[in-house]
Amino acid sequence: MEEGVSVLVRAYVCVVVTLSAAYYLTPDSPLRSVLWTVISASTVVAIAAGVARHRPARPLPWVLVAVGLAAYTVGEALFYWPQLVDDRQPAGPSLADVWYLALYPLLAVALAILVRRRSPGGDRAALLDAAIITVGMSLLTWVFLIGPYLNDATRGTVLERATEVAYPLGDVLVLAVLARLGSGRAARDAPFWLLLGSLLALLATDAIFAWQSLRDQFHAGSWVDAGWILFYLGIGCAALHPDMRRLDEPVAPGPARLTSGRFAVLLAVAALLIPAVITVESAAVAELAVFLAASCVLFVLILIRMADLMAALRDVQRRRAEDRFQRLTEQVTDVLSICGRDASIQYVTPSVRSLLDHHPDALLGTPLTDLVHPDDRHRVAVLLGSAVAEGGRVGPIECRLRRANGQYIVTETVGRVVDDADVNGYLLTTRDITERKALEDQLTHRAFHDELTGLANRALLADRVHHALERRGTPYQHIAVLVVDLDDFKTVNDSLGRSAGDALLRAVGDRLRTCLRSADTAARLGGDEFAMLLEHLDDAAEAARVAERILATLRQPLSIGGREIQPQASVGIALPDPDRLPDADELLRNADVAMHMAKRQGRNRFAYFAPSMHAGLLEKLDLAEELRGAVERHELQVYYQPFVDLSDGAIVGAEALVRWPHPRHGFIPPDRFIPLAEESGLILPLGYAVLETACRQTAAWPGLKISVNLSPRQVQDPAVVLYVQQTLARSGLAPHLLTLEITESLLREDADVAQHRLGELKALGVQLAVDDFGTGYSSLSRLHDFPIDVLKIPKPFVDGVAAGAEQSALARAILDLAAALGLGVVAEGIEHAEQAAELHRLGCEVGQGFHFSKAVPAAEFDALLPMRLGAAGR
Question: What is the pTM (predicted TM-score) of this model?
């Protein structure tokens, strides 16, 4: 508790600082007056808390101080009460002044008690010192503060002037006892200094207030109020400090000491104060001038004697300083040197041994430029010469200096030109900055290069594109910018981990370097996106040849994390418009647009930028932004297409399909907005919303099965299993009534992730189906490894099923495969009764398609449930 400043002190300081800040930030208003009163009241609370906490043996002085401050606070409240009640400014003496003035005698009594207790045997020297200071300060107070109030009848009635004079008199009373307390022998711990400082702040602030009031310059909220705040803060901190209980302990008697500071104060007060006051107030009286002259002569003689003492002291200090300088120069690593106007070394500190491995004496007379690297020598000579011509500072000069072994280090030299009796030349300081320069070069490289691949980053590439555009005239007219983006990089990152993804990016960076010439620049823009600047092209078609070389190089198999990967990429090519000068950002943006077009065209290819692409991309971006808003506002709707038993036309289930009714464009086809949702990541909230809606709705159709599409991004999402589980629990739908449809490509591209995730989903009890089976080039040998329950025959295989054995071969093959593996089958896209009949004959039990019904809202689907959907169709 008593080690250092207590928690109470810190808390009180925070409170006062906060209230003070609020006071200064609050405009002139009743609230400001309330804040000021609270600040003064907080000191009373602090003293009470300190006395209660630390329990001094004789708390009377603290009680008197607290009572005085409480009276002062009451005066504050009475003074500001008219302003708070009817916004009327107080004027003239009032009852508040009685409470205000009560502070000073109470403070004086409290201090006198402290003096008596600390020096029970008295202290004549301290009493005399205090008397000198009090008399001097009393004279100043009388001449500059009290006298003007008493002698100026225009300042109000006698009562008003007497009230104004009472405040300086109260300050003199407090000063007299405070000077005695401060002059005595004391164990001066923290509470003592806090108490002394706070009371000095009060006296000084009162004097400034009286001085400004005489001239009608004071106004509340000015800097003067900070002095009173310091008074409150110091008193409160002194009371809260743990050592406050020892403030009145007796001090052991000892010989009187006259310190230099104390002597200077007494000398100034005794010798100068009265003459100065007389000079100011009565400069025209000749008799007093003699007194002033004698006093000044006496003071000058004393100063001469003190000057002799100071001269001797300076001589001692000079010798000590020389010794310190010698020791310092032996320890510092920087080299201090003095060179003549011809740059020859005249003096050098011993630290040159560690810097250049030269003995100081061996370098005397050597031209500084002889140590400079030949490539830097001319520049250093010019800089030194310009400093002489301008008569100013030298450097900083960065250059390489030769060590004794012939190696060079990078140094920085600063200094100035000196022309005096001791030095006529250069005063220089040299330090080794070899490590700093190496670090700067490293940081510069990091600032313009990708840390993972070592390629240039976007900033460096943009700068080089900018310069290439500026110099693209003859013979360097043809330049091109390529943007390369890896296809399906996220699959690698999610399935094999981030370290494998980083390894793939490094390998791609290395391969891109092999595709470029020395004049070209390869950069990583971020993520899995790279870019190249091709310069000095013979023709624009050469950019396409480089793009083909990049694609072919990247397609070569690569071993990452113990697995063989065949990277693929899409490349966009942008050429500058020959009729105008585009900026670097525009060229990079055009290449990026072309890259996205290459992805839309099937990936693993390149595409040139065309202006129409930009318009198409803007349209795509607008649609993506509208889709985001539609998903957030839950504007997309879930439609249901029935699954029909082909034997009797009964509805046995449904597939949930999402539809987007756009407010301006009507229904947006799913093949337009689903890919956008996949690219932008919206497929996750969209897919989960469809799942939630479909499960809740199906729970209202007892016994009916529901099939919901699960995108590859959802399968890769580690939270998909938990979300499906929670959705089933919230909706009340039995797990076996839910079928999750996945694409066949997922079994090929994300086999390991898919196998693990589908196993977890299967453990929930749901059914799993492969949509459009037979169109994704999946390996039939791996189909048995996945927990699949249903295969869906795609529409292209259904279209020709009624046209003969040859056209129905693929559908028959899927049915035979499903039978061999014990899987169910659903035929999609049935549009004619003949197709339904033939599929039923081939052994397919369930189908869906326009022959039975298109996808409809839930309300219309309710109406379909009792029907038998067959040849009549809908």
Answer: 0.41
